[in-house]
Amino acid sequence: MNEEMHHPLLARLLHWSIVVSMLMMLLTGLYIHDPGWMPLFSSIGVVWPLHYIFGIALVTLVFFRIVYSGTSGDIDDLIMKPEHIRDLGPVLKYYLFLHKKEPQQGKYNAGQRMTYSLVWVPLLLVQVVTGIGLYILVGAVVLRVIHYIVTWLFIVTVLMHIYLGAVHGWHVIRSMITGKLSSA
Question: Cβ distance 78 to 116 under 8 Å?
């Protein structure tokens, strides 16, 4: 079994810091939405500042992940480009178990590229805008609904991200911890 460095330490630290920030955003956001349903915190006075702190942390971490990708050279692997659109079909067939062999498309396949650059970044921008809007316009129901729906879109896509990583096996998940990916 041959192992290669697939995820450098800084990429893994950024990844897991983003995971912690998103989890805290989710938990605090669910508490803000309904304290009775999500009684994890002592009071709303504790939760609001935590929500803002982890929101700022999340945006900062994503910014640094994008900068890191640009400086490390893997930005081209992360960005969905027009030429990757044709690669989506084989990826979908593989993940829907219609094709047994995974198409080789580099470090990240077309589905991952699409999720990272065309789904998560725009959703994060919507969350930032609606979150700031809710801070300024406390009673803005439309903003609250949009913010809530986008939260659930994040939840669904993150669960898909975890599932699709698990489809590949423990070695892929382990690579996000150790950095090394076995190629046997």
Answer: yes
**What SS3 state is found at 5?**
strand
The burial of 159, by beta-carbon neighbours within 10 Å (0-12 exposed, 13-18 middle, 19 or more buried), is given as exposed
Q: Could you tell me what percentage of the chain is helix, strand and coil, using 3-state DSSP and rounding each to the nearest 5?
A: 75, 5, 25
Using pLDDT thresholds of 50, 70 and 90, give the confidence band for residue 1. low
The CB density around residue 141, as the number of other CB atoms within 10 Å, is 8
1, amino acid identity: M
Query: Bridge-partner residues for 4, per DSSP?
Result: 181
Picking from 26-35, 69-78, 131-140, which range would have the lowest pLDDT averaged per residue? 69-78
pTM value is 0.88
What would the DSSP string read from start to end of 29-83?
A: HHHHH-TTTS--SS-HHHHHHHHHHHHHHHHHHHHHHHHHHHHHT-HHHHS--GG
**Three-state DSSP class for 99?**
coil
Rg (C-alpha) for the chain, rounded Å, is 18
Q: pLDDT digit string (tens) for 130-148?
A: 999 998 998 899 999 999 9
DSSP 3-state of 107? coil
Q: Which two tokens stand for residue 85?
A: 């659109």
Task: Say which residue, 137 or 77, is predicted with more confidence.
Answer: 137
